[in-house]
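Write out this protein's structure.
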Amino acid sequence: MRLKIKHFDAKVFESKMEHLKDIKFTLFVDDIPLSADELTDVNVLVLQEPNEYFGLHDWAIQNQNLFSVILTWDNKVLNNCDNAAFLPFGHTWMTPHFWNKSYNISRMACPLWPS
């Protein structure tokens, strides 16, 4: 298993995918191969961020043949890549130390909120 992950610490994925470590595949998360040496027999591309950030959705459509599967929420990729599959995306940046706390947010902090 190889991991090429753009915006997250790869160790987070490694710990969750420990049971797959002996399988020969490469997982690209919002990142692309820079050379053929980064590819394996099975290559998975996960597109989480919008195309407007990095242009990866357009790149993926043009290079879809490099991947066994492309996982994304984006209709443009889903409609233009036979190897694309829907992956609903969403997560929180809140970590466990936030979970049991309450927060007071005033209207002054966000004047657009209705009173």
